[in-house]
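Dear colleagues,

As part of the handover before I leave the project, I'm documenting each prediction I ran so the next person doesn't have to rerun anything. This entry is a single chain, and its sequence is reproduced below.
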Amino acid sequence: MQNIHLPNFSPVSAPIQAPPTGRDVFPINLMNDIDFGMLAGSMSNFIIPARTTIYVLPPSRDRSLLQIDTGDKPARAFSVIRHLQSILRAPLSPRVYHTQIQPDIQDSVRQYFLLQSGPIGTRLWQGFLDGFEHPEGPKGAVLLQGHSHMWGFTRDQSGQWFIHVDEPFSPLLDPVADAFSTDILGGRAVGAPREMNRGSFFP
């Protein structure tokens, strides 16, 4: 197994701080404001190829919660995270709901919203389906179904990319594995349940 580390430069003098590394940036609370300048500095060298699908995956699910495509141009990792957050913070997009998540996940998103929204949830959800935007209607954050923190960004041997999300507590760590070692997902179906290392980011 090959260990791949992000750059970690020592400060030259006391007033100068070392650039942040992946170990510093994770977990990321996707619901809060993110310092994308800092994130860009720590992830600037990581490029996702054009026409790549990135699967947003919690460890307990057998399917991804959301798929993000890079389109016709390569994308930097921090730009993908920024795009993901823009989806989550905006009112839920009918286009995203109908085209970027699987039908069974669509139903679980609906159930999650109804549980969170109380007695008026059914009416608000129907309004969303009918194209009406209500201040209390579903936001994009419901797509994560409570998995509000990003714990890693990985690529498997076949070239598939994953954003790992979970609830705001540290996932189970392998006490032996290096948190930055190459995490082989080969042999597992996309979205298969897995343990993930805290603070993972490797190309």
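The two ends are 14 Å apart (CA to CA). The chain is about 25% helix and 15% strand.

All the best with the project,
I.
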